[in-house]
Amino acid sequence: MRRTPGAIRILGGVLTLYLLAPFVAGLSRMGDADWRGVDRAALLHAAGVSVASATAATALVAVAGVPLGYVLARGRGWRVAVLGGVVQWPLALPPLASGILLLFLLGYNGVLGGLTHGALTESFAGIVLAEAFVAAPFLIVAARSAFAAVDPALEDVAATLGYGPGAVFRRIGLPVARRAILAGLLLAWLRAFGEFGATMMVAYHPYSLPVFTYVAFGGAGLPAMLPVLAPTLAVAATVLVLGQVVAVPRRRGRAPSRDVLPPVAAGPAATGPGRTLVLDLRQNLEGFTLRVEYRTQARRLAILGASGSGKSMSLRTIAGLERGAGSVVRCDGRDLAALPPEARGIAYVPQGYALPPHLTVAEQVRFAVDSNPALVAHWVAAFGLADLSRRYPHELSPGQRQRVALARALSRPSAGLVLLDEPFSALDAPLRARLRQDVLAVQGGVRATTILVTHDPAEAMLLADELLLLDGGRVIRAGPVDEVFSRPGGEIAARLLGARTIGAGDVLSPTRIDIGGGVALRVAGAPLTPGARVRWAVRPHQVRLDGRGEYPATILHRGAVRDGQRSVRLRLGEAVLDIVADPSCPDIGPCRVMIDPLAFQVWPHDGHGP
Ligand SMILES: Nc1ncnc2c1ncn2[C@@H]1O[C@H](COP(=O)(O)OP(=O)(O)OP(=O)(O)O)[C@@H](O)[C@H]1O
């Protein structure tokens, strides 16, 4: 646990002392209490009125105040901002002024007062209405903050799992924000219970406890007040203790378990053709325009791009979580763009997985509206989740969380598209490697098209048959993985695919490039245009030192041995390459290297540089 700085604790302590001091002072004087003049029956009645009216007022504001808090948390624009300010006005008014305003509404001559023939003043109903007016902002502000703190990804996922807006509120927003809302309800109750000024103006009778206290104080001195204080303090203290029990989060059991992940039990391989997917994704945002057009029958598609290039936006537009007016999303001829997210039949796994914290693993995996028990059982078994079924997300390791999110998404029989948004981000390298195998196993067993968003070329090449390279919201290259890899089409795409520009050359024939120094590379892939000037790249681990290798080269530098490998710098033609080699590789001087023709990436020279 992190330690709190001393100065902060001192400041907090000073205020706590100040807040407690009047209670201590009052309680220490209880011995002087003068009970003789106290009408105990009237005191008890007033206490009953206050408890009942505060409870009724809190219930009243809860019914509308919680939804209002949700609207304020989720809404955008100036209207919502104005609404957020207006509902806090009662906080700014002296309670007596609130009472006067309420009289204009509830009094004999007020709109509501006239309709009810004055039943809303000098009555229990009047007390409830006055208390509701002053207490409501406490609940609304607490509910707004509580809903604002709910991760929007949780609601997005629920929407893609078949829940409409009302169900998302009930199944996600409300339960996740529950504790903070309960704290707000407690505040509202206490404010209503202690309300005096507005109540006195609207309903002097029947006496509530604060009004009774005022009357008792008016008729006698401090000693006569003390008996009146006793029930007030007792009730407030009881409610506060109850509130702490209900509203303070309990620490639930187990520490996150370690990543003990059994291999995924891959089922039978999916057969049949891939789905026909037609995409024309459009977003016009301030400072960013997305336009992605693509048509494919590939089962596995990866969208690769730098940060901010529009990868997640594309996925969210496909899922219907971003509007994207004019967009087309068609899967096997079914027009998804016309449907809300809950009707698109999409299995969406967002970054961070978005597992609602109040649901156990068992509840998570069957959370989708149309989750299929047989599929749930299949994926729970395949991912080895059965022993974790009673755990909550914070009791799971990152790898287990990812498996739960995958199982949840895949347990929908109707899912035609599986969208994976950076599923391995924020994981360490060994875990990434293992979880890629999970996804690979999943891809082999589902007929749905998987669309993976990533900025890792290795991940994209392992988990996709076709690639879509994005830059600034546009597709700069798309097609089968091998084609895109070997002919990225330009410098930016080549870099996205991990190429570090190594050299330039002139195309001699459709499969040969002269890179100077008497070396001509033999490359595979789409035929090149003789005479064209090109750039080329090759990954370090694809260059092998081999005495019978095709190309003559020169070792320029032998680096230290690390992890059983030696870094080596060599010259090939006019290019300088950094590679990794066996520790026993030849010393500085001439050598030969072997490079698979498929390993070369070649793209047109942009005219800048050598
Ligand atoms: N609501 C929004 N309003 C305006 N611009 C937005 C909004 N949401 C996202 N953007 C912008 O859209 C662009 C694409 O965002 P997106 O999240 O798709 O990027 P990304 O490629 O997934 O990046 P990363 O790899 O960092 O997640 C970014 O420039 C982002 O700033």
UniProtKB/TrEMBL annotation:
Transmembrane segments: 7-27, 47-73, 80-104, 124-143, 180-204, 224-248
UniProt xrefs under InterPro entries: AAA+_ATPase (IPR003593), ABC_SmlMolc_Importer (IPR050093), ABC_transporter-like_ATP-bd (IPR003439), ABC_transporter-like_CS (IPR017871), MetI-like (IPR000515), MetI-like_sf (IPR035906), P-loop_NTPase (IPR027417)
Alphabetized CDD domains for the sequence: TM_PBP2
Pfam hit, one: BPD_transp_1
Highest taxon of source: Bacteria
Species for this entry: Gluconacetobacter johannae
Name of the protein described by the UniProt record: ATP-binding cassette domain-containing protein
GO BP terms: transmembrane transport
